[in-house]
Design goal:
It is a single chain. By secondary structure, the chain is mostly helical. The protein has one domain (8-354): Amino acid/polyamine transporter I (Up-down Bundle), CATH 1.20.1740.10. 74% of the residues lie in helices and 0% in strands. It has 14 helices and no strands. It has helices at residues 8-20, 27-35, 39-63, 69-77, 79-109, 118-135, 137-162, 179-194, 199-202, 212-245, 249-254, 267-296, 303-318, 323-354. The longest helix has 34 residues, at 212-245.
Amino acid sequence: MKQERISTSQLSVVIAITIMGAEVQSIPRVLASGAENSAWISLLIGWGIGAVGMALFIRLASRFPTKTLAEYFALVFGRWLGKLLSLSFSAYLIGLCILNTRVFAQTIAIPLLPETPISAILAVLVVLLVYESHAGLRSIAQLGQMFIVPIALAAVLIVLGVVPLIDLGRLEPLFEPGLGPVLSTALVASTYVGESIVILMLYPYLTRKSGALRASFIGMAIALALLLPVVVAVTGVFGHERAVDLLFPTLSLARLISFGGFIEHAEVLFVILWLFSAFLKISVFFYAGSLALAQSLDIDDYRPLVNILATIVVFGAVLPDNIAVVLEFRGLLDRYSWVYQYGIPLLTFAAAVALHRGDQSEQAQ
């Protein structure tokens, strides 16, 4: 397979988009359900946990600078256990792809195409996904660079547009639900950063590996700078009680905006921009999942697997009866996926150190 390369600046964008995606629509609701009016505090603590996790990802990847996680599982744990872990990692990424694909389709359907069958939206999405996956990692990264500014601008405009409606008193008192719920919700917040575990599949393709940690932290900072004001705005406008009941609270926030009193339904513009973010996130997961499966099966090129996996994604995304089922499963995943996201890399790193595994002779450029 042709070796693709991405720069550290492109990695920053990929990390930011991988963390955000369409989750900017639902994160305020998820955090408010656990931390109530202290959702923003849980978000900050979660990012702190995620920063430690990110440092672990980069430290692990630097021990195997020319290999992906799917490849060095076998070097650390042996062939059969390593292959099993590689397959489970591929399944995890494709599972995230399925969940995000259904949420993506639902986000289009509710405000833009309410009469269009979900299956039709999914079919169009998967055709685009297959095309982008065949184009490769560099193409995904370049699209990310193209759309990160409009995506960020959309988030900024939403917050600025509702500033007169924000009541900061709704954020008080601090730690109202208690320290325990705030910390447990912070673990949930850390899973959004934890999804950037995908970097362990991208690290070998960096042009300058020495800048990987800095680039990853920049990506995290971009995501936090966009998500934190949105979480504060949702709580300040709706209060945590109502935020919990809103399916897509950020979309509800956008619906309150009118420019000059004569431009209404501005949320359509924001939804379109967010869809680019969601599509790019799904593309990253799909690419990494396809690559992990190919390497698990000792296939040189992931592209022959793309059509098969795309079919699985479509069927998986269309199976749930409604979006409530998807969000319920997503909530369960948010609650416990940090164990996999941080536990597996930590175990792998500890085993690599104890067993003296890792090609330290290769210099990270």
